[in-house]
Structure formats: structure tokens, C-alpha cells
Amino acid sequence: MGLLVYYASINRFFYVVLTAVVMTASVMVSYTRARAECSIQMQGGVHGAAERMVLLIIGALFKRMAPCSG
């Protein structure tokens, strides 16, 4: 939410929209997973929370994450 307010204050419309889309998508991932688990017997997924965190850490350590330009 902080990024959304920041980008709005510096008039970066594209980044405001991108941040809002990413926020919505992050909530939808959890919602979709919860609905799928209720509908069918589903175990895990492509990557669990631990795997995503490891990939995030590796990306940060090897500087493979895009920097925020502003």
C-alpha cells in the first residue's frame, strides 16, 4: 500500500496500476488455492511458501531482481 501511495504522489500512473495489479494478484493466489483445496483434494502446488522464499533470497543474493527506478 505504501508503494501505491508513493507512486501516486510522484505521478507515476503506470507504477500505480502495476502495483495495484500485483496486490490484487497476490491476494487472488491465496484465494484460488483455498477454493481449490475445498473443491478437490489438492496437495501443495508448483512451489510452496518455503520454496518461494528460497528463490526470493537467491534472487536477492545474486542481484537478479529488477531494481526500482524512480
Radius of gyration: 16 Å
pLDDT averaged over residues? 76
Structural class: mainly alpha
End-to-end C-alpha gap:
17 Å
Number of strands: 0
Uncertain runs with pLDDT below 50, 5 residues or more? none
Provide a count of the helices.
3
The rough form would be described as flat
Helix content: 55-70%
Largest sheet properties: none
Strand content: under 5%
Oligomer: single chain
Q: H/E element string?
A: HHH
Structural commentary:
By secondary structure, this protein is mostly helical. The chain is built from three helices and no strands. It has helices spanning 2-9, 13-39, 49-61. Helix 1 runs antiparallel to helix 2 (13-39). The longest helix is centred in the middle third of the chain and has 27 residues, at 13-39. It is flat, with a radius of gyration of 16 Å. It starts with a helix and ends in a 9-residue tail after the last helix. The mean pLDDT is 76.
Brief summary:
This protein has 70 residues and is mostly helical. The chain has helices spanning 2-9, 13-39, 49-61. Helix content is 69%, strand content 0%.
Descriptors:
mainly alpha; 70 residues
Please give the structural blueprint.
Elements: H1 2-9, H2 13-39, H3 49-61
Helix pairs in contact: 1-2
